[in-house]
Design brief:
Elements lengths: L16 H8 L5 E5 L6 H7 L4 E7 L2 H13 L4 E5 L5 H4 L8 E5 L4 H5 L24 H7 L2 H12 L4 H14 L5 H11 L12 H12 L1 H15 L5 E6 L2 H14 L2 E3 L10 E3 L2 E3 L9 H6 L7 E7 L7 H6 L2 H7 L5
Parallel strand pairs: 1-2, 1-4, 2-3, 4-5
Antiparallel strand pairs: 5-9, 6-7, 8-9
Helix pairs in contact: 7-8, 7-10, 8-9, 11-12
Bound molecules: S-adenosylmethionine.
S-adenosylmethionine binds next to helix 2 and strand 2.
């Protein structure tokens, strides 16, 4: 991949782009933050409207190459940071007043199809699974994490009921020789599930999801990213999240419910009185889905869920309270279990 590559050659289908454009109405101009630049699909579409500015982030090196192309095209209206979205407020000025902050979670098509990254079941390259700016790789996790923790991670982060059986199989295998690539890992998982596979997809799908989430601390990142976005948004600013699996969607739904209906106790010396405060107005309780046309054109979009809400001017409060709801994810992804 190099910086001279045209955007079109690597184009993937930006998921639910039309719905996003009709929600954010970039015709009105303003500043937008694209927290997951990826192949640049959203950023590029917004920049086509002349009065807009886009600040984009991505942790992936590959995205930086794409961003350089947009930087040449829109030097005054586009800015890119190669960083994690949990650092949002360290990167941008507090007073930029964004019209919308957008998250499109998960992997880009280029990350998925790049065999060197080890995200696909057939990859025979190094077992990597890193999105970028990581502390460890899938190789480290698969070959050195203790069996019990590995089983829990596969069970919880992959929602894989056979987590323990799979971890036992991995452990048996790695005692003989290290597991070096994704193809090897996929075949070990397939073997572990051979008696118990009612699953239509590849039997290693859930295990791969779990390892990828753990390696990239994806749930911690999402929780912190939402908090950072809520701090930065002000009156009328929108927070839009496209998620792809139930763990992500649960966090997003919980976040919007929590911050559209916060119960506060004005003083710890007074009896608990239910005072309610909200930071967001939920536009719809139900998540939006891609149209059937989009699913036909891009099968990867089929599990997408879009949720969004509009921020008001109330000061941001209670992040620790919200984080407590997901304490188990913080503990699991912290790396303390090594
Ligand atoms: C599904 S892709 C985004 C595609 C993009 N909307 C487009 O239209 O091309 C998700 C991107 O988010 C990035 N990403 C995931 N987690 C991140 C994080 N915590 N911080 C920054 N970028 C992240 C990934 O590296 C990937 O490039």
């Amino acid at each position: 991949m190099n910086a001279t590559m045209s955007l079109d050659k690597t184009k993937h289908h930006p998921v639910m782009l039309n719905q996003i454009l009709s929600i954010i109405t970039p015709q009105r101009g303003g500043t937008y933050i694209d927290c997951t630049f990826g192949g640049g699909g959203y950023s590029e579409a917004i920049l086509k409207f002349s009065d807009t500015k886009v600040i984009a982030l991505d942790r992936d090196k590959l995205s930086e190459n794409r961003a350089n192309i947009l930087l040449k095209q829109f030097p005054k209206r586009f800015n890119f940071f190669r960083d994690k979205f949990s650092n949002l407020n360290k990167l941008v000025e507090k007073k930029i007043n964004p019209q919308a902050i957008i998250f499109d979670l998960g992997l880009s098509s280029s990350q998925l199809s790049d065999k060197e990254r080890g995200f696909s079941f057939e990859s025979e390259n190094f077992l990597n699974m890193e999105m970028g700016i990581n502390d460890y790789s899938a190789y480290d996790v698969i070959n050195s994490l203790n069996k019990e923790h590995l089983g829990t991670i596969i069970k919880v982060l992959g929602e894989e009921k056979d987590g323990k059986i799979i971890a036992n199989k991995i452990d048996k295998y790695r005692r003989r020789k290290p597991i070096k690539n994704s193809k090897e890992l996929a075949s070990i998982v397939k073997d572990a599930k051979k008696r118990n596979n009612s699953y239509k997809k590849n039997p290693a799908t859930k295990t791969f999801q779990a390892i990828r989430i753990f390696v990239n601390k994806e749930l911690t990142e999402l929780i912190l990213g939402l908090i950072e976005a809520a701090k930065l948004l002000s009156n009328g600013g929108m927070l839009i999240v496209v998620s792809f699996h139930s763990l992500e969607d649960r966090i997003v739904k919980n976040f919007f419910n929590f911050y559209s209906n916060i119960k506060i106790n004005p003083s710890r010396y007074l009896p608990l009185k239910e005072n309610k405060l909200s930071l967001f107005k939920l536009v719809s309780k139900k998540a939006l889905s891609p149209t059937s046309n989009e699913i036909n054109e891009n099968v990867r979009s089929r599990s997408a869920k879009l949720r969004y809400a509009i921020r008001n001017n109330n000061s941001f409060i209670n992040p620790e309270e919200f984080k407590k709801n997901f304490q188990n994810y913080f503990e699991m992804e912290s790396g303390i279990i090594w």
